[in-house]
Amino acid sequence: MTLKNTADRWGAVSQSLHWLVVLLIATIAVIGLTMTDMSNGPSKIKIYALHKSLGLTLLTLVVLRLLWRIYAGAPKPVEGTPHWQERIASLTHWALYVLMFALPISGWVFNSSSGYPLQYFGLFNLPKIAPRGEDLAQLSHQVHEYGFWLLLALVVAHAGAAFYHHLFQHDDTLKRMLPGGRRNVRASGDVGAAPVPADLLPSASATSEHSHAD
């Protein structure tokens, strides 16, 4: 597998960034959906801080992923894919990019406008990117919340489309984002030919009788 993308499949770097982003989104979603119901205390503060740090990590990975895609390009659409499906897939991909930028940034704006400090895994402080204000805090919170549900819907639709192509279209849409998921291509000659069942092969005794008869 090459590091860069090819015309037929995503390379190792794109695959790694893709699945890291998927893992981060899933982790952030689980934390985000459960942390608001926690009782106030040190544990809740730590979980909120973890949620913020993971969100900043997601923002960094999305920037790297977008820069790598610009540099390495993207595979061509799978052969036989209708044009309307290509358009929907392209729009979905770019919508996902927009939301993966919007959610961490809106969270950062909410944190800044609410007057909360922001640390990255307790290692260093990050600057405020918005002035303190109740209206801005409320707006950014709404963008963060509704954007999450929209992102979740698009992720489910994106995954569902990939599995549809894999299970019903039987093409390489999903496999080319998996390590080693290469298309099976038969070589010329006998390589890759189906084996002959054992019960259809002549037995040793039959071969011997045939040779004696000759």
Automatic annotation (TrEMBL):
Main location class: membrane
One Gene Ontology cellular component: plasma membrane
Pfam families: Ni_hydr_CYTB
Region (Disordered), start-end ranges: 189-214
All residue ranges annotated as the Cytochrome b561 bacterial/Ni-hydrogenase domain in the record: 9-180
Source superkingdom: Bacteria
GO molecular function: electron transfer activity; heme binding; metal ion binding
Cofactor(s) the record lists: heme b
Subcellular location: Cell membrane
TM annotation in the entry: 12-35, 47-68, 88-110, 146-167
Annotated keywords: Cell membrane, Electron transport, Heme, Iron, Membrane, Metal-binding, Transmembrane, Transmembrane helix, Transport
Membrane topology designation: Multi-pass membrane protein
Gene Ontology BP terms: respiratory electron transport chain
Full protein name: Cytochrome B561
Organismal lineage: Bacteria, Pseudomonadati, Pseudomonadota, Gammaproteobacteria, Lysobacterales
